[in-house]
Design goal:
It comes from Neomonachus schauinslandi. The structure is a single chain. With 314 residues, the chain is an all-alpha fold. Helices cover 82% and strands 0% of the residues. It has 16 helices and no strands. The chain has helices at 2-17, 19-39, 41-46, 48-95, 99-107, 115-130, 136-156, 161-178, 180-185, 187-200, 205-219, 223-232, 241-254, 260-272, 276-287, 294-313. The radius of gyration is 30 Å and the shape is globular.
Length: 314
Amino acid sequence: MALAAHLWHFLPWARAVFPGPWLSRGVAGCRGLCCTWRLRGSEVMGNLGSFKRSFLFSALPYLGFETFQVFSQAALVHATAKVEEILEQADYLYESGETEKLYQLLTQYKESEDAELLWRLARASRDIAQLSGTSEEEKKLLVCEALEYAKRALEKNESSFAAHKWYAICISDVGDYEGIKAKIANAYIIKEHFEKAIELNPKDATSIHLMGIWCYTFAEMPWYQRRIAKMLFATPPSSTYEEALGYFHRAEQVDPNFYSKNLLLLGKTYLKLHNKKLAAFWLMKAKDYPAHTEEDKQIQTEAAQLLTGFSDKN
């Protein structure tokens, strides 16, 4: 990847500096020679050895540049194939729940200039931070590291919906360490990037789900946080449970049963709206969701506790 990164930067520079002036001199030189052949053919023929040597030396830079282009293009094709291979491995490990192996794989390419690698590295860093065995100190470092990778991914490709999504997620995570004022101050930035992610890819259920979380968070914001929000914004961020519910349902329509937390939040949102029948339906789905990750297990436990609370009250 280091080679690929250098080539990506080097090639445009090489093309900008060498071909322009060199080819213009070469073309002008050819025109000059053509005129000489026509007007002074006897002089050219009379000094054939000099002409051959001149022609040979004129051809060598062109041949050298052509060879450079061939090798450079081959190197780029190889580098692109290498990136695709890494992305395939990364996606396989992610789907398999191999969080630590995924992080180890991607950190080898942390100097990459490829946005697809960088946002996956941001996600992997965050996933490692979420593991129960990660200390608080390590978690903070990983969260900050994840934000840096996500920021670089966005800088490399502003058209990447995933880069927008993970940049917003990582800003929110870092806000947990910067205090409630910073977290609220970042609220509109986070919303903006989630909305951009949805605009770029309306079929990404996760981005829609995250927009639902944003709405749910501001719908249940405590009064003292609302006061802080009013101090920071002329129009403080706000939302409703109905709006959150709309996003959670939309995410489920795009990709049914894609995420245990979406099921849980559908149940919790219906609880907030005092619809116990639908709350129980979605909480049961969350409890019965196959656990692939630690988060899934935590969600199963929370859903079961909420359902137990139902039966205790009845």
